């Protein structure tokens, strides 16, 4: 059976981009067709300036939101990355096959390093090496597929390169995974700046729809979305990024094709209104279920405990095999 691995990083409140680009597909499609492993990748949240209490809070919230979005612990393994040592163990071995130049070419590093510098801090070494830890996350589970939004494609490519290189040098150890992504809304853009990705750690909340936003807030943000000059509703991501982003959000939320939908609208106002309604309806059950789960925190804790136990069992044989293959003396 196909094995899937994917994760979310608790660097902020989860967004509509995370949901449409990844989480919804995991819940509605992936976990029904494949052996699925989903993870709150909290170690990745330490790569930028962070508040420890906030990371803890956001990790719990992300796990709760994954459950609220429909991840079913009877079907999928759900756990927190730092609860399973295998990720960090394997990451070090992969650092020994990755190169410094490769890391510096990563787009996310190039985008995030200057932001960290501008905040007055130094750039953490872990920000540079984080794609290697992500490769370890994936390879430890022998994943065949990694369902991610478009922004993560380059990291999955790196994971493939590291797996192939390790296998060639030290013998067949890892499955070489491939990225999959949704047909629509693989890159949801910021509503206030449709040329940048809607990112959970961005500071301008006005352009970001959070999964836990109240319906009124969702409506306001979408009704105030920046649109393009002109008034015709056309799907053209390059030249009409604002309107195209709304068409993609609408198409992904209620089904359909953005290009086909464009023909149904004569004004930006009508498109915004329908998009806002569709997103409010899409998120309603997630918010409701989240509210119930928050009241039942022992259930979430038990899911994560059992998930980590299962994740350890799944990942240990591959990581142990990698330790042997690379030349480390097994403990007596
Ligand atoms: N705007 C987006 N559109 C589509 N997919 C997206 N994803 C993230 N943003 C969008 C996908 O959501 C999954 C989880 O993302 P992540 O937690 O690994 O974080 P990220 O990719 O670094 O993006 P974020 O949410 O914007 O976080 P920050 O701001 O901290 O970088 C991934 O599959 C991702 O592709």
Automatic annotation (TrEMBL):
Q: Key word Ligase present in the record? A: yes
Q: Where is this motif: 'HIGH' region?
A: 10-18
* Nucleotide-binding as UniProt keyword: yes
Mind listing the GO biological process terms from this record?
A: tryptophanyl-tRNA aminoacylation
Naming one, the record's GO cellular component terms include: cytosol
Chief site of localization = cytoplasm
Q: Which UniProt keywords apply?
A: Aminoacyl-tRNA synthetase, ATP-binding, Cytoplasm, Ligase, Nucleotide-binding, Protein biosynthesis
Motif 'KMSKS' region covers 197-201
Gene3D superfamilies given in the database record: HUPs, Tyrosyl-Transfer RNA Synthetase
Reactions catalysed = tRNA(Trp) + L-tryptophan + ATP = L-tryptophyl-tRNA(Trp) + AMP + diphosphate + H(+)
Question: Per the database entry, which stretches of residues form a coiled coil?
Answer: none
List of residues binding L-tryptophan: 137
EC number(s) on record? 6.1.1.2
Q: Which SUPFAM superfamilies match?
A: Nucleotidylyl transferase
**Residues reported in the UniProt entry to bind ATP:** 9-11, 17-18, 149-151, 188, 197-201
Please give one Gene Ontology molecular function term for this protein: ATP binding
Q: Where is it located?
A: Cytoplasm
**Tell me, what does this protein do in biology?**
Catalyzes the attachment of tryptophan to tRNA(Trp).
Instruction: Relate the assembly described in the record.
Output: Homodimer.
Q: Which family does it belong to?
A: Belongs to the class-I aminoacyl-tRNA synthetase family.
Protein name per Swiss-Prot or TrEMBL: Tryptophan--tRNA ligase
Q: Which gene encodes it?
A: trpS
